[in-house]
Design brief:
The chain is built from 19 helices and 8 strands. The longest helix has 45 residues. The chain is mostly helical and 518 residues long. A two-stranded antiparallel ribbon has the order 1-4. The protein folds into 3 domains: 191 residues, no CATH class; 132 residues, no CATH class; 123 residues, no CATH class.
Length: 518
């Protein structure tokens, strides 16, 4: 009998069960086939988990990061009860730092439902609970299978925090395992929208470690890392810009690429940068961070890339000026306008209609204003990506406006949820301590800092999370020529002390929009 045979015998559909009381985890709950062998079990004859001894993550170049391997938050105790809710709305929102032992029986039931299909839209807390255990597998478990499952999860769960942590962990594991092949698999899986979730310093170190070249596309995507801020042509004319950048690099070194190992022979002239490498708190050391050389601070590398980007920018400008007016309509905006004319509602595929239907159904099941906001996000994201159809353009505008309308209530509820959720978790930890299960001092300190952080944000009337509805609506209004409307949306976002994730923020966006009015 395999470890997960316990979950295969007599598969019980909890969603149809009439029993609303406590359910035993031993009652055969099915796992998605992708997860077999990846879920950590704490007890019983199927136990496959032990805390592990402290070790080091070797990144080469003399960089070693201690890994404590303290209590795994995703580990499942078969002794803990689960309970099917009478109504889905009875299930509380997952805490900020989820753990299987720390959530209540209703949430455990929902987590097991999630494990049946981890690719369904859900509270991101369930995704992180599973992901914690996958990070551990990257280091000391089934690396191959965990790597592939994480890549697949990234296609379905677009939470920026999840994408950032998983990107970092995947790159780190490639370095640790000395596997450029897995790095290639990761790079093939990402798209342009995920570039902002990649740690450029870690990415460059990884390329350097494996002796891989820095390509024109890499330089273009990470232009801000090389102190190049004017991304107008990169955004609107990426193919032309890439072509001009490649020509520029060919003139510099006759290869059109940058050999990092040859250009940066050592790290004496680079500064260091620190970052938190893992989402899983049991894999973090006391300092939380790992420190690596930051190749973007190497003067030779940054100067070369910055100058090449500047030259490509000017050449792209001249090339566009020299085009006949009709051909100069190859920009992203004009292509969108053409597509909107061509793609009427009758051409929408059945697959898109089905996805839309699933997303709109999820909206109806929202339990509170926080849940409603997080159910709006995938609808806005889906509609925005498909706005070349007039129907989805209108749908995106509609849901951006709905999300903006509920924002004041969402903000107040989210502050309180972050503060109260952590306080409840501390009460749970106090109870566990009375039973002899003690969290590390580091974990307790992290919890205290988390509460203080959110109390400070509430006092300052701020949120440190992005609300995409404001930015998306402003961009759409700008594309439609409603510049004054776009400015109003940006000003409203500023009145809530929000940021759009760019260096200039909404202030910079307003300044650019005002120039268009002149």
């Amino acid at each position: 009998m395999g470890i997960f045979d316990i979950f295969k015998k007599g598969r019980q559909d909890l969603s149809n069960s009439k029993n609303t009381g406590a359910l035993s985890t031993d009652k055969a709950i099915a796992l998605h086939p992708d997860l077999e062998g990846l879920v950590w079990i704490a007890d019983g004859k199927h136990k496959n988990y032990s805390p592990g001894k402290e070790t080091y993550l070797d990144l080469g170049h003399g960089i070693k990061m201690p890994i404590p391997f303290s209590v795994e938050p995703s580990v499942i105790s078969l002794k803990l009860p689960i309970q099917k809710p009478v109504n889905q709305s009875d299930i509380p929102k997952m805490p900020y730092y989820p753990s299987y032992a720390g959530i209540d029986p209703l949430q455990r039931w929902a987590y097991w439902e999630f494990l049946r299909n981890p690719y369904n839209s859900t509270d991101i807390g369930y995704v992180f609970t599973l992901y914690y255990g996958l990070e551990r597998h990257l280091l000391i478990g089934d690396f191959e299978k965990a790597f592939d499952v994480i890549l697949k999860l990234r296609n379905f769960h677009k939470n920026n925090s999840f994408l950032w942590y998983s990107s970092t962990a995947l790159i780190l594991s490639c370095i640790q395992r000395k596997s450029p092949d897995h790095l290639g698999k990761y790079l093939l899986s990402i798209d342009d929208t995920q570039i902002s979730t990649i740690n450029i310093s870690l990415f460059l170190l990884c390329l350097h470690t494996f002796g891989l070249e820095l390509t024109p596309r890499h330089i273009m995507y990470f232009a801000k890392g090389f102190a190049f801020e004017n991304n107008r042509y990169i955004k609107n004319h990426p193919d032309i810009f890439a072509s001009e950048l490649e020509k520029t690099l060919l003139e510099i070194n006759k290869t059109g690429i940058i050999d990092l190992q040859n250009l940066v022979k050592n790290f004496r002239n680079t500064k260091s940068c620190a970052f938190t490498p893992f989402a899983n708190p049991s894999l973090r050391n006391k300092e939380n961070d790992v420190t690596i050389p930051d190749l973007t601070t190497d003067i030779k590398l940054t100067s070369l890339c910055h100058n090449a980007l500047n030259t490509a920018h000017e050449r792209t400008k001249m090339r566009l000026k020299g085009m006949p007016k009709e051909k100069n309509q190859n920009s992203v905006k004009s292509e969108k306008i053409k597509a909107e004319i061509i793609m009427d509602n009758s051409s929408i595929s059945e697959e898109l209609k089905a996805m839309e239907c699933d997303l709109l159904k999820a909206e109806k099941n929202a339990k509170n204003v926080i849940d409603l906001h997080f159910r709006y996000l995938p609808i806005i994201d889906f509609a925005y990506k498909n706005r070349n159809y007039n129907y989805y353009l209108d749908l995106c505008i509609k849901y951006c406006q709905k999300d903006i309308d509920i924002f004041p209530k969402f903000r107040t509820a989210y502050w309180d949820d972050m503060i109260n959720g952590s306080q409840k978790l501390r009460e749970h930890e106090a109870h566990m301590e009375s039973l002899g299960v003690v969290r590390s001092e580091h974990a307790q300190e992290q919890r205290r800092k988390h509460v203080e952080h959110w109390e400070t944000l509430k006092a300052e009337n701020r949120l440190d999370i992005r609300i995409p509805a404001f930015q998306r609506l402003a961009m759409i209004l700008d594309e439609q020529g409603d510049i004054e409307g776009a400015i109003c949306v940006c000003k409203l976002a500023l009145s809530y002390n929000l940021t759009d994730g760019t260096k200039g923020g909404f202030e910079g966006r307003i300044a650019k929009l005002k120039k268009k009015l002149k």
